[in-house]
Amino acid sequence: MTVQNSSDPLHGITLKTILSELVSQFGWEEMAKTIDIRCFTHEPSISSSLKFLRRTPWARDKVEEMYLRWKM
Fold first, then answer.
1. What CATH number corresponds to the domain at position 36?
2. What's the number of domains the chain is made of?
3. Which of 27, 33, 52, 63 has the largest CB neighbor count within 10 A?
4. Quick one: angle between helices 15-34 and 46-55, nearest 10?
């Protein structure tokens, strides 16, 4: 049995978990101030944001960066 060590700090953390924790910590309004994307500013929801972030790599990168800054 081999154990793999990932250098990726987000390894094993789903986008849904990242988004849910950020919304819980900061709220939609603060997230929209930090990352100005429509899915955070107009009728935000976890499901619509996940759909957008999964299709938009640059936006997902910004959300992951915000999460890492908060957690580190």
1. 1.10.720.30
2. 1
3. 63
4. 90
